[in-house]
Amino acid sequence: MNNQSIGVFDSGIGGLTVLKKIIDLLPNEKYVYNADIKNVPYGTKPKEEVKKYIKEAVNFLISQNVKAVVVACNTATSIAINDLRNSYSIPIIGIEPAVKPAVENKGSKKVLIMATPTTIKEEKMKDLLIKLNAQNSVDLIAMPRLVEYAEKKDFQSDEVKEYITKQLETYNLGDYSELVLGCTHFPFFKPILSSIFPKDTKMIDGSLGVAKRLKNVLSEQNLLGNNQLEIEYYYSGKKVENEDELNNLLKII
Ligand code: DGL
Q1: Assigned fold of 6-95+207-252
Q2: What's residue 151's pLDDT?
Q3: Which end of the chain is more exposed for a tag (fewer CB within 10 A), N or C?
Q4: What CATH number should be reported for the domain whose range is 99-204?
Q5: Active-site residue 183, yes or no?
Q6: Residues lining ligand 1, CB < 6 A?
């Protein structure tokens, strides 16, 4: 038993989509959520610069005496998870695009992976596709502006719809049975994406996998808590006073 908090971080509000799944599985924990909004977006900036931001964001969580850190950001996981694991002794859980289940379920169709430019071009993605022998059954698309729209809490406007439609112009949407949401900001756009893709396209993201993994790791290391659920929010290490907006976002996912 351990009643220290669990640290969760993302470049912005995207990690809330992961936090939601974690809370569903682990309701008796305290959470410290750090949104690095001073430095968002991560997915379009040089890797070395973003690595520094990630280190700062995780150091902040460590300074809050957390018992584990969840990197609720695909981009940060793809460029820094190994460095982070080598730097800290507490469990560090990352998130990966849910490519494996999508490839397993795709039937005779293909898989479309939507993520940030960095996640798409990183070695980790190439290695994963090779490992799954999926290079020919998967297409990739970067949607960097969805991160900006999400940070403005604009999940539904005509402008967002136009942007997505334009980005997808050269793709034949009927080719895909699975759409992988490979950025934690993207599940906020599920309603609008459902209106653009054919009805039977399934959307999948890695958040449930992360929540399950966290639960297993905490349980194996005897670190599960028996707290009253509590979430403290920080913006790049600064306490968020008006928490309602973030709590409300947890309700709409
Ligand atoms: N939410 C993040 C991800 O899962 C990063 C978005 C960004 O800052 O570009 O990749």
Answers
A1: Rossmann fold (3.40.50)
A2: 98
A3: N
A4: 3.40.50.1860
A5: yes
A6: 10-11, 14, 40-43, 73-75, 116, 119, 147, 183-185
